[in-house]
Amino acid sequence: MSRMSLGVDQQSSTPNARQVAPPVHSLSSDPSRCAEAIDIQAAEDRLIQTLLLAEKGLNRLASFGEYWDSTADPYKSVTEKIVVETALLALVAGRVPDATPALRDSLERLMALLCPLARTVEKAALLIMHPHTALPFGIAHVALEKLGLPDPDFSATLRSALSSEHVNAIERLPYRRLEVAWLRALWDGLPLDYDLHMPGSIVNERPHPLHMSTADIYALTHTLFYITDFGRSGLPNDLDVVRLGQCIDACLVWQLFEENVDTVGELLISALVLPTPTSPAATICWDAINCLWAEIGFLPGPSMDTQIFSELSSTERDAYAFQNSYHTMYVAGILNSVVLQRESLRTLRIPVGSTREPLIEVNRRDWPYWVRLAAHEGSGIPAGLAVEAAIIQKGRLGAYADLEDLLSIAPNYHVSSLTIAHAQDLLGRHLAMVQRYRQSTL
Fold first, then answer.
1. Which burial class, exposed, middle or buried, applies to 399 when counting CB atoms under 10 A from its CB (0-12, 13-18, 19+)?
2. Can you spell out the DSSP letters for 213-230?
3. Cβ distance 52 to 45 under 8 Å?
4. Residues 6+ apart with CB under 8 A from 303
5. Is residue 171 part of a domain?
6. 3-state DSSP call for residue 439?
7. How far apart are the C-alpha atoms of 411 and 416, rounded to whole Å?
8. 207 assigned to some structural domain
9. Which value, to the nearest 10 degrees, does the dihedral of the CA atoms of residues 159, 161, 164, 166 take?
10. Is residue 170 part of a domain?
11. For labeling, which of 43, 195, 202, 271 is most exposed (least CB within 10 Å)?
């Protein structure tokens, strides 16, 4: 059984060197690619739709949980994960300035449902026995407190867990240690101490999708979420934001053609919290998400399997659908919340007067469905993005002959220097290895 597809065979969803060759036409001649402010009302409508989905899910959480959590640990269950992530969605949505009555009402209903789920005697007991659970349970509690709903008794229990010597007595990845620090800083209204958590972080290395996994994308994006408090704070001065931006863009291109709506949404949030100009990669990914959402009415998660879904009935089917789409929808809700908060970043269009980036027509079924939707009825996407996607795919597959061909045409398009450098390094190391083994057999 295969996961839900957006309409393209994954093996052929990325263009090759021949597919991205001319004919092309100039970006500047395409009016749909001019700078254009985001439709703020549409962004709020999408956020409200996400909050309504969360509200419906929480209302049915008890019946859904019967299909999810029979063998789960009490603090690692799907149900508890949904409660924590719903609270995080509410926290970021609650920061939208000048919220309309419809947005406020939706948020207030959701918060009323969250309170009895996030603060229970059972969770308090787990905080005493397992202080490291201060991270998931603390996020939900602190989010509600920041939204104006305190609970002094639960606060005292959480403070006890966070101040104990046991809260960090487990192995955590660098971005998870940063998450604990972010939670403390958020609760106490203090600046985040970066220095304790940057050593070993992926943002201090030189990641690129030629060598990354989706878990690495998660680490990269969430590090940026916590460092910036989802866009409310700046980045440390010693981080190379230009290189980070290029890496985010390359990951966006990679995941766009992998058709992973979940990671594209998280990468777009990361692109917005960086103090760098909007890129063509961010533009096409923003369009792809919104076109897909408008086309099918929601955003499917990467684990959604249409065959499994079709074989279920009634409540079990609804539970499966919610479990396999809620996270992607929540990511999109947070994305639209960040857009609505950042007046200076409310343009997600390729700037007017940008370089004459050639376009490639997107009208064949072997292109990903949401790319075709976002290509504005065949007007095309920047050819440089298509070339970059092909470089990443061929490099990850070890198709070195194709990679060499693509690198030969890359200078004719606006492929990022970071991707070219990493691809050249990969190809060079491969050719050196081949040469060594050939010599050893002589």
1. middle
2. -HHHHHHHHHHHHHHHTT
3. no
4. 3, 324
5. no
6. helix
7. 9
8. yes
9. -160
10. no
11. 195
Round to whole Å and give the CA distance between 426 and 180: 36
Residue type, 286: W
* Rounded alpha-carbon distances, angstroms, from residue 18 to 14, 360, 362, 387: 11, 11, 14, 10
Residue 243 has pLDDT above 50, yes or no: yes
CB 84 within 8 A of CB 139: yes
Nearest to 95 by CA among 188, 227, 233: 233
Q: What are phi and psi of 347, to 5 degrees?
A: -120, 115
Residue showing tokens 């949404």 = 265
d(CA 162, CA 204): 27
| Of the candidates 420, 385, 376, 416, the residue with the CA atom closest to the CA atom of residue 32 | 376
How far is the C-alpha of 100 from the C-alpha of 204, rounded, in Å?
A: 40
Cβ(348)–Cβ(38) under 8 Å? yes
How many CB atoms within 10 Å of residue 398? 10
Q: Write the CB contacts of 102 (distance below 8 Å, at least 6 apart in sequence).
A: 44, 48
Cross-strand pairs, 382: 359
β strands within 346-394, DSSP E: 358-360, 381-382
Q: Is residue 150 part of a domain?
A: no
Q: How are strands ordered across the β-sheet holding 381-382? A: 25-26, 358-360, 381-382
Write out the residue range of the structural domain in which residue 212 sits: 10-118+201-440
Q: What is the DSSP string of 91-126?
A: HHHTT-TT--HHHHHHHHHHHHHHHHHHS-HHHHHH
Residues contacting 439, CB < 8 A, separation 6+: none
For the chain, give me the number of helices (H) and strands (E)? 19, 3
360 bridge partner residues: 381
First-to-final CA distance of the chain: 48
∠ CA 310-313-316 to the nearest 5 degrees? 105
Q: Going along 349-392, which residue ranges are E strands?
A: 358-360, 381-382
The residue type found at 156 is A
pLDDT tens profile 170-193: 998 999 999 999 999 999 999 888
Query: What is the Cα–Cα distance from 351 to 339, expressed in whole angstroms?
Result: 17
% pLDDT > 70, the chain: 86
What six digits make up the tokens of 440?
């050893």
Residue 358 three-state SS: strand
Structural domain total, the chain? 1
C-alpha separations of 231 from 75, 297, 403 in Å: 28, 27, 36
